Amino acid sequence: MLTICVGAASCLVRPIRRKIKGAPHCFAFHDVVVDFLNGTVIVPFLLLIGATFSKELLEEALKTDKVFFAVGGLIALSFVVREYTNGD
User: Fold this and answer.
1) What is the pTM of this model?
2) Could you say which DSSP state residue 27 is in?
3) Does 88 have pLDDT greater than 80?
4) Which of 13, 25, 42, 47 has its CA at 20 to 30 Å from residue 70's CA atom?
5) Helices (H), the chain
6) Average of pLDDT values for 33-44?
7) Percent of the chain with pLDDT over 90
8) Distance between terminal CA atoms of the chain?
9) Rg (CA), the chain
10) How many helices (H) and strands (E) does the chain have?
């Protein structure tokens, strides 16, 4: 649930920044989707970092967030593949 909330909250960051800068178009659907996907990987990545310090945190994270770890891994993999295929 926290992963979805962070993803939804991250959708607002770019439009707010654009609004502050005075850009005419604050919302773009493509940007909202990308920002949501970027936001959904924040919680799994933070849990992975925390799991290196705590075995209990790793076990709890694996019990509760298997799907979000998979989503985070898939999104991260897709961004890495995109960098390789669209790189210089």
Assistant:
1) 0.68
2) -
3) no
4) 13
5) 2-10, 13-21, 29-40, 42-51, 55-64, 66-86
6) 84
7) 1
8) 38
9) 16
10) 6, 0
Q: Quick one: average pLDDT of 43-52?
A: 81
| Placement of tokens 């800068």 in the chain | 21
Residues 6+ apart with CB under 8 A from 42: 3, 6, 7, 10
Q: At what angle do helices 13-21 and 29-40 cross, to 10 degrees?
A: 130
* CA–CA dist 68, 74 (Å, integer): 10
Strand (E) or helix (H) holding 83:
helix 66-86
pLDDT at 58 over 60: yes
State the Cα–Cα distance between residues 7 and 5, nearest whole angstrom.
5
